[in-house]
Amino acid sequence: MTKELRIVLDPLVHDATRLRIMTLVASEGTVEFATARAVCDLTNGNLGAHLNRLEEAGYILVSKVVEGRQVSTTITLTETGSKAYRKYLADWERLTGRR
């Protein structure tokens, strides 16, 4: 078995929806919940479930701020999440022969 075939992509990031979320947050820095929901075409509950998985792994930080009667929820990558995302991309490149 070649070395490239032994590479295991992080299953938490590899999920199509979580990969979209991670890519969005990595490219924007901080993303509002509503923006992530719209860009990723998800329901509140579906996005929330994926965010919970990523937050439990320490990949993202979900912050809620109450402004009057409005709750503003933002999503940012943690250092752990940023490293995991960069590693995922590097592993993908090695697997696909793009590096």
Topology (elements, then pairings):
Blueprint: H1 11-14, H2 16-28, E1 30-32, H3 33-40, H4 44-56, E2 60-67, E3 70-77, H5 79-96
Antiparallel strand pairs: 1-3, 2-3
Q: Radius of gyration, rounded?
A: 15 Å
Low-confidence stretches: none
What is the structural class? alpha+beta
Distance between the termini: 19 Å
The backbone outline, from C-alpha atoms, is elongated
What does this entry look like structurally?
The protein has 99 residues and is α+β, with helices and mostly antiparallel strands. The protein has a single domain (8-92), classed as Arc Repressor Mutant, subunit A. It has 5 helices and 3 strands; from the N terminus they run H-H-E-H-H-E-E-H. It has helices at residues 11-14, 16-28, 33-40, 44-56, 79-96, and strands at 30-32, 60-67, 70-77. A hairpin with a 2-residue loop joins strand 2 and strand 3 (70-77). It starts with 10 loop residues before the first helix and ends with a helix. The model has no long low-confidence stretch (mean pLDDT 92).
